[in-house]
Write a structure and sequence with these properties.
The structure is a homooctamer.
Chain A (H helix, E strand, L loop, with lengths): L7 E3 L4 E3 L2 H5 L4 E3 L5 H14 L5 E4 L3 H10 L4 E3 L4 E4 L8 E6 L5 H13 L3 E5 L7 H6 L1 H6 L2 E6 L5 H8 L4 E5 L11 H8 L6 E3 L5 H15 L4
Parallel strand pairs in A: 3-4, 7-8, 7-9, 9-10, 10-11
Antiparallel strand pairs in A: 1-2, 4-6, 5-6
Chain lengths: ~230, ~230, ~230, ~230, ~230, ~230, ~230, ~230
């Protein structure tokens, strides 16, 4: 029986893996989808109590959960665009990730990625509204792309932005397809396929709308890269 | 019974619609896939005889058909890259279509489009190797794009080129996805979806590898546009 | 930093590309899906102020947005079928696009295409209820099809109408699949595939329900064709 | 144990259901795909011996099987286009099925349907090359369509022909999609979807290239209809 | 202009093809999905007025439309399971169609097929709850299957029922896949594929949940077969 | 480093997990696809040497591999239908699995399942040619189905056999879809979906053509069940 | 006519197969989806009355149905997580099935499987929260896995848990994909494909979220295995 | 005109982008698929001549191309497993990428990744045959995983390995699905979906069999990380 396993916290409705931080160097995170507001508050509190010196992150929160958290945990910081919450002090940023978004509809995913990166210990440079149908905007920020330690590129519809960005610089690039689009975009499949088939070498991809996963990955890369000359 | 219909030519194995030119203003075309070399030669000859003053086009020819046509019809012009043949004089070009291709692997489809455009009465400006991962090449030909009467943009893999080109100019643009790619490109589906979901307004699409269809359409547009001031 | 870029208008929640008109010759357009009514009004007003002499178009508006726009912008013209709005004077029509729809359920997409065409500077001839299962209606309008400068053909279900129309005339034809249908129509995929595989040469296709995209393209073609003899 | 079941014939490598004719009124049929030439000959002979007074049909035969059958069974009738063979006298035709094909590439499937219909006891009226992009050919045979007892309509690419034919007449109509096409036709899926979503009521569909299945069904309908006034 | 075409009735929001009956021998039908209750009432009334001596059918009616029709047209007959309505006297039945359903969830589709058959002039024999996992029920009705003039077999989930029924009898069989199921049934696709790939020869298929289409077809077959000895 | 791990045998081109038998109670198995004939012989010999007292199985062998094995390992037993080989004595059978196949084309998959079951320690009862379109054959073997300890049911096309068998008995049933079929059977996907959506409760499924996987599972079930009263 | 068939109970809106228990040894089960609360109560009562000595199971109940059952049948036992109800005494457990779930979101499916197993006569050992990204939890319960008579392994997202569990033990294993996930998980398709392609031999699969089907199967296996030494 | 663009080398049949190294810090690479052996040799030579001090890489070479390169360029190093070639000295390795492969069939993709990493300036630690069905092998190399600067994890079939590895360590992880598998693995789609839906956070994915893309990305990450304390 592992019910007394010190690596897990048993909250009755869930066993929380409080050991992952030790294994991976990452903070604890609560995936809010499918959880009641009270469950979100309970898990956030339990994790915060265990490690008050570092931030806990909760993502994919419903309107109701955001509201309950705001009232139950006044010290929490709410990010309405990202639909996410942090509790506890953010770490000092090591290295920088540029989070690049194609259109305004991609903002929630970009915001989730950006907040995840900060919680996981890296800094963020946000670059918005640089879709490929208006190249002059993208070319104007070429230097910011080249000096980042990692890139997270967020786009829906045809998902072409990572190919263009990937041709401009050799910085490691994580592409995030979003479910923005209609008709034969299939909830982000068109963008996902576009990114998987990018003609720019060295583009990697995460699941549709998965700003969190891209953020975890990019922060790990940026933290390691930070001390280079 | 329509067996004496003057609008069709009965070759035994096929009835050829020799009336389409009258209805649509386009030349006769032989779709070579699935036809024997002898059938291709027979149909080309029959159509050429009926209208020796204008070109007939045969597309999608096998190596064997190209070979048999070369020997049987010494007056035919062979295009090995397009895998196509013309018989009879090409018309005077009216208007210009720029045929833009992303990579060298897209050359056969671009060549089929270009030859089709010429046979259908418009002129061609070929622009090759301008993939989105190397923007400087594309930006260098911006003027040629803007002065064309219609654009045919050919790309495989993620199919991003039409979005970028469509953001640079307001010339009518027909996108052609190619089956170039591997893995999750699904024989051109990724490029097709990318083009259907283009963030640049006014992009239209034809079937995968359908250089012929794009060429017919673009020539019709260019011929009509030619006389503008 | 490009925050003072004269080519964009920064509204706080969005940077609007007011330079596209210069690049492409097209008017400004607001894609209303996912925007709040207040955002729609704000963008419409900002764009109209910048260029009061030409029309701005807003598409894909919710019931609520249509209502708010009506009250906030009394000078706006509301098209309830197209779920779209224009503000400012429509341009003089140059050339004519025939907008052909298969069934009454296709009316919203056809209306969006028609309004887009007018805003983009071409004239419109609407031809409705000419599905392929009742050929006599279609054959009765054959002349109107042949004298247009471009055709936009809208159909759901099996999407067969562009093939039949494309066999009747050589006018450039843009097909628009609609999401009308049920069962194995897959929200318009069956019609989309039918149009991509049309046996009539020279048919091009846009995304499902994309009346706007077809309209932009067709207006560009018609405007160029208008001055031919 | 059913090894002595009089309703089956055990040939060692297969047990043949010789009782189906009694249950369904149909002749015996050998599906040749995946069978060796010798197996085809053995089954044909066994079935013919059991009922020499009626025809046996073998379909989907390879070049090699067609060749071996020709030499081993000189009384067999070979249909090279349908890739099928009959042995024994064809029944008197009761009722008529019109087999309508869109293009020359659809001929093998139409031929398989036609031969199946004859073997299953109905007569056949073949109507070829009446694709929807050339309506005048189809309208010319309108009377032959209306006087048939059942229609089998064969088409590839977008599969639009059954919709048009179904709008011209109320005769029961079975549609057969063929794998003719390329790109996003997906080996006949586009045509299959087009037919399933036909806007003409009363269209039924069989599997891709399944001329045999359509033929069995249509013959059953025509045989029953034959004696109507 | 065809605005005075006697073959259509213009109701303002729709042109109704009142000539189809003459072309196909079938009654007029109103497809209710996407129409307002008032539109349904208006079309039913217009069609009924034109031909009070025969029945008009309206299908796919919403709760609200059923309610409005009941109050506005007291002479109409309402079928709550089929979600359909008839107005005017049903024709004398000629021939019989057996409508066979696998499970209770398939009842609405079977009811729509049955009512359609009656309106289109044939008689109906309903056979319910004969799924393949309980063969004894099906074997008990074998005689009723064999004496019908046509079969409509309705099933969801794996769609196996037509294969089993098709092996028991040679009566023409139309299979209707329903959207009953969950998980990897994909809203009826699993059943549709099962029916298209039926190992029983002579099975034809209509679109998912398309009881209406199957009914039109089956009635046409049964009416023709009725006078056989 | 685990290079001296006694649980693996390093053959240079592969490390073989010789410990799985201890973990799972199953024999060693060589998956022959993608291996050269010499590699197959080498692995078979190495495994046989280690445990000469029990059988080793090699599956999915090419013609060439079967030939090389026959000459190199004269003690091996070749199963040409299953394309598989055993080396070493088969275990005493404990419990019985009935392997049921719908058609003769399903024989190779059924044979692979049957041989796998024997090698994994259970007995086999083969029941062939009992497709659902000829129910009398299946009903004749009902007793053999009911007395087995586990059932493996193999079928292609619509994959309906497991539903029918599963309705006749409560014996645990593993369904194996085969790639037998054409057109919209998608290489076995139609059968796979049919089996996953079976209306008979308690049907489990393995991958397409995976006779081996079904055999391993069924033998495990039968061995455990054997000693029941 | 089978209306007096003692093997079915006619409730007006449904005929219930009360004979299945005799054929398969399993209890009666009511599939609640799509049934009204009153229908659920009526069927439960009818089945319970017929066999008060054994449990009846109702699954997939809506909130409303759960509520109505609670009030109408006070003797029923409600399982809110499984959304299921039992009426009548549970049988003595014979053999044990370990129900293994990857994450807390998989709990409803695991609960449905567990309750089904108990109703079908076997015992249950629940093992929760043992996802593959935290192997230590899974390794800690290795003994419980090895001593079970059958395993039901429930997982969403990538569905990797059955492969890992299947490598640890040779106990028969049924995998249940859940619809837990987002983006390209396609409502459980990713997990389903992962399980069908498991590299661990002897893994069988049921439909997405089909805890009931897995439970029926596993209980049958465990009951048979129970008496082994 | 860019024909004299110093950033491209014109070889007649292709313009090579020799400027990408300057933009991205990466070496030149020749994608061999679809190129003739002579073209491969010509491009390799041209690139090597331009920069003899650094390595050029050619991937996806046919047997014939490998053979011609071996004879034409005796200084080239051939990697038969990776089907790739290098010409010129490899750079000093900075940082280390662990390349982890599930099975022997994944070796070609792992070898392509490993060689790409070396050519792009990082070191490689190869870890093979550590599939999830034999966890002890994977757990034995846990330290090597944790000390790498980046991980490339290669797996086919269900693609579960990245989830398990990602749970053991926080090192940045790029997953490569391979086309190894059969049946419903769809040429690598099952593995691709499994990886996109990984329950381990921070897993990114490249296209199927794209060892090259993963290698480019991982080398970029490792080079940057190398100088960390």
């Amino acid at each position: 029986m592992d019910q007394d396993d010190p690596r897990t916290a048993d909250l009755g409705f869930a066993r929380v893996d409080v050991d992952r931080a030790a294994r991976t160097g990452d903070p604890e995170v609560v995936y809010g989808a499918g959880k009641t507001p009270d469950q979100v508050v309970a898990i956030l509190s339990a994790l915060h109590e265990k490690h008050p010196e570092r931030a806990v992150l909760a993502t994919r929160l419903s309107d109701e959960s955001l509201d309950v958290v705001r009232r139950a945990l006044p010290d929490a910081t709410i990010d309405l665009v990202a639909r996410a919450v942090t509790l506890g002090p953010l770490p000092e940023p090591r290295g920088t990730v540029a989070v690049v978004a194609a259109g305004t509809s991609d903002a929630p995913v970009a915001a989730e990625a950006a907040l995840t990166i900060r919680v996981h210990g890296a800094g963020v440079d946000r670059i918005d509204d640089v879709g490929v149908a208006g190249l002059h905007r993208l070319l104007a920020v070429r230097d910011r792309l080249a000096t980042a330690d990692c890139l997270v590129v967020v786009a829906g519809m045809e998902g072409a932005l990572p190919s263009v960005v990937g041709g401009l610089t050799g910085v490691p690039l994580v592409a995030v397809p979003t479910s923005v689009g209609y008709g034969a975009s299939f909830g982000g499949i068109a963008a996902l396929l576009g990114m998987l088939n990018s003609c720019a070498p060295g583009v990697t991809v995460v699941n549709i709308d998965n700003g969190y996963g891209a953020g975890v990955f990019a922060a790990r890369v940026a933290r390691r890269a930070e001390v280079r000359p």
